[in-house]
Amino acid sequence: MKASQGLEIEKKYDVDSDAVVPPLDSLPGVAKAGAPLTALLEAVYFDTARHTLASRRITLRRRTGGTDAGWHLKLPPLEAGGGGPEPQQRRELHAPLGQPGVVPDSLLDHVQAYLRGAEVAPVVRLETSRTTHALYGEDGVHLADLADDRVTAERLHNGPGGGTESGGRKQQWREWELELVHGGPGIFGPAEELLARAGAHPAGHASKLSRALGDTPGSSAPGAGPSLAARPAQDQSTPALAAGKKAPATAVVTAYLDGQIQQILAQDPRVRLEEPESVHTMRSAVRRIRSALAAYRKLYSAGPVRRLRDELKWLGGLLGGPRDAEVLLDRLRGHLGELPPGEGTGAARNLVEHRVGATFDDGYRQLQEALRSDRYFRLLDELEEFRDNPPVRTETVARGRRVSAKAVEKSARRLRRSHKAAAHARRGTDHDNALHQVRKDAKRLRHVAETAALVHGKRARQVAKAAHRQQKVLGDFHDAVIARDLLAALNPGQEQPAEAAVFAALASRQDALMSAAEARYRKGRKKSRELLQRGVI
Q1: Whole-angstrom distance, CA of residue 201 vs CA of residue 519
Q2: Taking Cα atoms as reference points, which of 451, 498, 372, 425 lies closest to residue 118?
Q3: CATH says 244-533 is which class?
Q4: Which is the most buried residue in 87, 202, 214, 309, by most CB within 10 A?
Q5: pTM across the whole model
Q6: Max Cα-Cα span within the chain
Q7: If you average pLDDT over every residue of the chain, what do you get?
């Protein structure tokens, strides 16, 4: 069963045990506060022995009592939170109660990229007496809830017989949580002023679990430093770079790699759950990292770079199997749908669905097996280790602006050579392969220009955009080549003339699309020639 999802937007406040909840109906936009409702909640939190999930601000619990009993998984903040001035946002997933010690697979799938083969077990038990004050607007809309929580926390550990035992000392505290229901974030400002006058102050912890665990959240987990654990997945092409235009080259690469690593981690559960576009997005992140490592390899020790590139090639190949089959199947389904119905069309459709569908299923099966493998988990560890402790060759590294400009120019020269080779290649397979090489080199230039955009800005983004246009057009050409070759292999020939006619029509369509794509490539090549042939950036 797929877990249900929601977005939690809240602010937490520490408060003394004798504080009094102020009159909440005095807040702007609040017409009335509902009668206080009290419930006893018991939650058991699960994590690894090293508190891997907590180190990344992820909480996994089974809670009984109240209106939302069940399993809850709260994923890393969409924005860095945990006591800051802005409300904390986290994606929350729910699953039914089920068995006390059996975490639902629908939730575990979302954290396998962080657990990396480690088992989870109970680590903390919380008992909370929660008094909820509902806030309503003039039109009766349920705006928000203020939860007045009196918490008792107990550390747990696994006993010798496999059971869960108490860790001894208990902690007790009181806190208030203001959580949006259907209201807007504008309520937080006035509410904070009101609650502050009642003695509350922003919480010094991101969650009840983090407070219960104290100062030992298992920060030794790979890549689990607090600044990275709280960081949201960056935009694919412009991850943040704190050092700005004066950053050293290694900082530029690190910032870019971090954005792509976060993308891989974000897409991992979506791939496991077979969500649309997840394989494509993860594959793109893998390719971006490979391109960056290739372009900037001289900054680092050769061994770690070579190993990462080899392992990323392995993962990219596994992602490519189902993705390529998916693209091919969608393409041919569309073209078959344009043909008039008939016996030959139906038979051809069945044959295509069977052959390409089987390729997709087999590729996805292999990919799912790989995502459960130690090899994949080691790759994630090594990526984060490379990002956190880059194996630079020297202590003094040139500025990113100069090094990235040289990397872009080198990639542009490579692309220009591919263009020339394609222009002189013989028609047929040689020409098709030459254009495919142009596409790959355009993709590499695009990715390298994305890294340079962190310190060069608009000019580098223009280069990336021009390279992307060429990559996309030649991607259409390559897809038509693959489809044409498959159709030739499936065509039954004279044995079944009706089917053969359909396959011939489909192949003719691919030839026409190849010609159209190549014409667009030539036209676009003329437009982008000046941009890609002069000093680039």
Answers
A1: 65
A2: 372
A3: mainly alpha
A4: 87
A5: 0.86
A6: 90
A7: 89
